[in-house]
Amino acid sequence: MQLKGYERLAPERLDAVFAALADPTRRAILSRLATGEASVSELAEPFEMSQPAISKHLKVLERAGLVSRGIDAQRRPRRLEPKPLAEATQWLERYREVWEANFRRLDSVLEDLKAREKERAHPKRQGHPR
Amino acid sequence: MTNPGSLIVSTPSDREIVMTRGFDAPRTLVWEALTTPALLRRWLGGMPGWTMTKCEMDLRVGGAYRYEWRKDDGTVMGMGGLLREVVAPERMTATERFDEPWYPGEALVSQVLTEKGGRTTITMTLRYESKEARDMVVKSGATSGMEMGYARLDELLAAGRTPAVERR
Q1: Which of A51-65, B29-43, B80-94, B102-116 has the lowest mean pLDDT?
Q2: Taking the C-alpha atoms of B149, B151, B156 and B160 in order, what is their torsion angle to the nearest 10 degrees?
Q3: What are the Cα distances from residue A49, in Å, to A3, A16, A53, A72?
Q4: Which chain B residue is nearest to residue A33, measuring alpha carbons?
Q5: Interchain pair A83, B164: CB under 8 A
Q6: pLDDT tens-place string over residues A56-67
Q7: Would you call A27 and B148 a contact, using CB atoms and an 8 Å cutoff?
Q8: How far is B156 from chain A (nearest CA, A)?
Q9: What's the CA gap between B42 and B56, in Å, rounded?
Q10: For chain B, which residues make up each domain, given as ranges?
Q11: pTM
Q12: What domains lie within chain A, and their CATH numbers?
């Protein structure tokens, strides 16, 4: 929850990235593009989808900045733009780091509470060093 | 000593973050640690270099809570909200708003505790405010059910690894 102090990523951009990733076909397209650029027809092939359907998904990915078009005017190959993906991961990564640290401290608080419960259940042990 | 579970972070929708973590303690103790200011201060420290300087919680539905942290350079960060749901030792839902917001509006944070064999799992859902989020809450249950786990994204990144994505 407490993430301030970190650089702020454009929320709209992040939203667009997460929305784009929230679809299995689009994730599959990204996985495919991760192995190298591909034209729309090359992308349509393994998905058993029409080219217009693939184009629609590509538009969403392009709007999120996850995919760009190559220079070859004929094939118009699409390629993966890794930066927004890295941003999205980084954002989650930070959440993760902060909460991992918090939860590790919570582990030790819980150890203390368990020790207290034990002490309550068997309260003799005078002179215990805590 | 402890055998804590690993933290799982996922984004089941574009407005939610869900974190799940197992703890080697019964639910009543986890609840105590989540709702007692003196204990919260000990673990809700956030990032390195930050210390929790204020922790108040009026533990009842409609009650307020307020947290403040101070960084070693003197920067202060505060946040708080209202408790919407308090069901000991099972669940707590609260609004969350930062003094200097780093995301638009308010988030709704729910923490659900489930116990199994003396171990407790916390599932924390952070839902961010937006028209879409509200629509989603209204329609409740109409979410895609799609899980874009963190590991999944990581995998994808690893596959496309180029100097620009190298993270370490």
Answers
A1: B102-116
A2: 150
A3: 41, 23, 6, 23
A4: B160
A5: yes
A6: 999 999 998 999
A7: yes
A8: 6
A9: 13
A10: 8-127
A11: 0.62
A12: 11-121 (1.10.10.10)
CA gap B71, B94 in Å, rounded: 25
What fold does the segment set B8-127 form as a domain? Alpha-D-Glucose-1,6-Bisphosphate; Chain A, domain 4 (3.30.530)
Inter-chain contact B43–A4, Cβ cutoff 8 Å? no
Convert the pLDDT of each residue in B30-72 to its tens digit: 999 999 999 999 998 767 788 889 999 999 999 999 999 998 8
A96:B46 CB<8 A? no
pLDDT digits (tens, 9 = 90+) for A8-25: 446 677 778 878 887 888
Task: Return phi, psi of residue B78, to 5°.
Answer: -130, 155
Give A126 to chain B, closest Cα distance, Å.
Answer: 24
- Helix, strand, coil percentages in chain A from 3-state DSSP, rounded to 5: 65, 5, 30
ipTM comes to 0.71
- Asked whether the bond before B89 is cis by omega within 30 degrees of 0, the reply is yes
CB contact under 8 A, A99 and B154: no
What is the count of residue pairs from A and B with beta carbons less than 8 Å apart? 151
Q: Which residues of B touch A88 (CB under 8 A)?
A: 153
SS3 B126: strand
